[in-house]
Structure prediction request, 141 residues.
Amino acid sequence: MVAFIGYMIEAGAILFSYGMSCINPEASRNLYQGLNLYNLRQFNFWHYTLTVSFVVSISIMKSYVWYLVIKALSKISLTNPFKMEVAQTLEKISYVLFGTWLVGMLSSAHSSWLMKLTGELYGNWVSGEFIFRVHSKSHRF
Prediction:
């Protein structure tokens, strides 16, 4: 439950900060927990918007995975743990995780392309990061 709420708060905070940065470009210096996309915003607003969209999409997808996990766990009974309802929920989880991975890879490709274009790294996605956040500076935006 905590992870679900946490990722929803993260997505909301980033969206709010993005909205503020549309009005005041200085707000893009600290979108969320040190996420600094000011130089990207100054370079090209549309690439900035796409990068923020990737971050928000992944955060929402993570939250949805945790919602589905909570839903699956609430449906499991000890007498019959693998009901069709639980199996379908687990299948949804796998599809959402796959979709999250795809979005993460697209974000990584976009970030790599921007690196070649501008010489600055605006994000460093790790392909398995969509489930558990790595808290080292080298893996954060």
Q: What stands out?
A: The chain is about 65% helix and 0% strand.
